[in-house]
Amino acid sequence: MLQPVFVSRTDPNSRQNTIKEIKRRAQSGGNWPQVIIFPEGTCTNRSCLISFKGGAFYPGAAVQPVILRYTTIPDTVTWTWEGPNAYTIMWLTLCNLNNKLEIEFLDVYHPNEEEIKDPKLFANNVRAVMAKALDVPVTDHTFEDTRLMVQATKTGLPLSAGLVEFQKLKNKLGISFDNTEVMLAKYAEIAQSDGDAFIDIKDFAKYLNLPISPALEEMFQLYDRSGTKKMDFRDYIIGCSLLSQPANSEETIQLAFKMFDEGDKGFITQEELCKILHNAFGVKDTDVTKLFTQVDSAASGKITYEQFKEYAEKKPEYAMLFKTYHEMSADKDGKLKTE
């Protein structure tokens, strides 16, 4: 009777099929009734409008913005990803003597040629009209942020750790949701070493099995974009995407391996690893032994280039640290050189 358009949030093919069906209905010349779409695609606390999904705007057809205002006090309607669950909210709402809802139909929005060609622009402009009518701000959060929030709780982090404005990061950095989930798991592993949801330089040093050194401090400052001496998940994503991963090139890994490999034997001994790490970063012998064991996966007593590269790819922060140390060593004043 309702004739809904079903969509799976996690299946890219389902989304494309949904867009095609919405277009078909919107461009049917009146054979289909209006399609009702909640463009945010998730629940919020109603304090702002988050990013609109593109489904309603791909057809390039006129849309009828509708805004809802729940005015009952106390508010038993708003449901987010934290606090009472949906069943509790429903029960509390049914317990009210009455529930007030205001529905306001705004003027039909007819897209111009530019908006027809750019569904994202169309969506943002309609959102701006609705936000003005509601007198609330807009943010770049999306449903993917709520998925990261849920994933954050599974790793022991608070829900707020997953709020990174994923869509904005995706547009600027080109990262995928799957890669972001992998980074979240690694971030949780580092951050929870001291029981909170942030990474400080002690956590960073512990993760890398290194003592705090000038090179590590210099590198941490590059990650710590806000200068709070604590790195949140958003800082970590940007740092990995713009600093560590680009620095972790084949050329950098080869250069680092040659620095450890005395005599170009094709492998690194524990003594060689200890010598460089102790002189460069003040690493203790016990920590070198622990690191050597982790890299020497075959327990052969030596580290081959393949093992060295595999470990470097797992922890790209080492490449950035090596690059930072190399540049600091080349600077007579002991400061990081500017390009």
Summarize the structure.
The chain is mostly helical and 339 residues long.
Describe this structure in words.
The chain is built from 15 helices and 4 strands. It has 339 residues and is mainly alpha-helical. The strands form 2 sheets. Strands 1-2 form a two-stranded antiparallel sheet. Strands 3-4 form a two-stranded antiparallel sheet. α10 packs across α15 (317-330).
Describe the secondary-structure layout.
Blueprint: H1 12-26, E1 66-70, H2 86-95, E2 101-105, H3 113-117, H4 119-134, H5 143-154, H6 166-173, H7 177-191, H8 201-207, H9 214-223, H10 233-247, H11 250-260, E3 267-268, H12 270-281, H13 285-295, E4 303-304, H14 305-314, H15 317-330
Antiparallel strand pairs: 1-2, 3-4
User: Beta fraction of the residues?
Assistant: under 5%
Q: Stretches where pLDDT falls below 50 for ≥5 residues?
A: 332-339
Number of helices: 15
Rg, nearest Å:
26 Å
The side-by-side strand order for the widest beta sheet comes to 1-2
Average pLDDT number: 87
Distance between the termini: 65 Å
The general outline is elongated
- Helix percent band: 40-55%
Order of helices and strands: HEHEHHHHHHHHHEHHEHH
Work out the number of β strands: 4
Task: For the structure shown, list the relevant keywords.
mainly alpha; two-stranded antiparallel sheet; 15 helices; 4 strands; 50% helix; elongated; disordered C terminus
